Amino acid sequence: MTEPDLRPLALVTGASRGIGAAVARALAPGHDLLLGGRDTEALQALAAELPGARPWPVELTDPAAVAEAVGGIERLDVLVHSAGIGLLGTVAETSAATWRQQFEVNVVAVAELTRLLLPALRAARGRVVLLNSGAGLTARAGWASYAASKFALRAFADALRAEESDNGVRVTSVHPGRVDTDMQRGVVEHEGGAYRPEAYLRPESVAGAVLLAVTAPDDAALTELVLRPAGA
Q1: Residue 72's domain spans which residues?
Q2: pTM of full prediction above 0.85
Q3: How far apart are CA 10 and CA 30, in angstroms?
Q4: Distance (Å, rounded) from C-alpha 178 to C-alpha 160?
Q5: 1-24 per-position pLDDT tens digit
Q6: Cβ(183)–Cβ(17) below 8 Å
């Protein structure tokens, strides 16, 4: 439990836009917020919109910068990993550099930030939510490196959940289908398809799933949530 005069603290990565920004807005009524991302101007604008929020700009693939940024966070109630990249291409087209970049952002950075924040999460018996993907459950042609990184992220979540359950830390993987974001519109262009709004989830709908995981009662552990667009 937090002190009576303090609200729970949540850190949301990738908060400058899309799902991350929607998650921040969903958590804001009940949490103070650290808004993680690289776009300082966008983070400042969102922080001005949400009372109790402040920017937390950091390059997550820079271990030294991350270690410095987490200094002083002694208690953390919620950690939402929303930052990520989606680089598509067939196995024949995908270079070693792309594989490394995809895993560095989608897996290694997540693992390192979580590792550094585990003492603060344990102190609060906190919740960790990982924004995964439908590609973390099923791999498609042309999605090899992205899907592999998301399968790895799911494995990370499963191991973290098993390791930290006795410390009271709950871990949830959220697997949304296609979401109406800039990244997904880029996927449509890459695949040469037509954009159909009904085939996409809204970022706010995914944020609702995150809020469900965060606010679940202590006797309920939501391990995985899978969302699909109703009109797909």
Answers
A1: 9-227
A2: yes
A3: 10
A4: 26
A5: 344 458 999 999 999 999 999 999
A6: no
- What CATH number is given to the structural domain containing 33? 3.40.50.720
CB-CB contact of 24 with 53 (8 Å): yes
Contact 129, 213 (CB under 8 A): yes
Strands (E), the chain: 9-12, 32-37, 53-57, 78-81, 127-131, 170-176, 224-227
How many Å apart are CA 225 and CA 172, to the nearest integer?
7
Give the active site residues: 146
Pull the structure tokens for residue 148.
């592999």
Instruction: Classify residue 3: in a domain, yes or no.
Output: no
Please tell me the distance from the alpha carbon of residue 58 to that of residue 36, in angstroms, as a whole number.
7
176-205 pLDDT, tens digit each: 999 987 666 555 555 566 666 778 899 999
Beta bridge partners of 53: 33
User: What token pair was written down for 145?
Assistant: 């490196």
